[in-house]
Amino acid sequence: MVVELAKRSGRDLRRLLRRLNLVTGRCFDDNEFTSLLRSINIKFGNDYWLLGWREHKISTSSSLFVLSLIDRYNREYVVKIYVSIGIISMVLPANQLNLSDEISGITMLINGNTANLSGRILCITNVKVKEVP
């Protein structure tokens, strides 16, 4: 019975991650990713609570985000999200920009007639969930 409850709880957490689109293959800009993590407490605060996260640099092009969560039964989980990192940087004529589009997470500096865009893009390569005994 206890083993079955643990399996179900792990499945529920994986389902929550899928609902947030934190699945392998998805890409986010830096701001979007951290906003998504912060939204766990707002959207799913009755079932799960995000205690915090930490980014560990694996290499120049990949990182690991380690999240600590607890569920409504006070069971603690560690979620490891492996990401590959890409950098976007470009210079465009300012009149070419459509500022009604969402550009969160990307730094934009407009200098006269040119716009410099730069930011970090995170693409999820793997997600692992583990209950802390």
TrEMBL record:
Source superkingdom: Archaea
Protein name: Uncharacterized protein
Biological source species: Vulcanisaeta distributa (strain DSM 14429 / JCM 11212 / NBRC 100878 / IC-017)
Lineage: Archaea, Thermoproteota, Thermoprotei, Thermoproteales, Thermoproteaceae
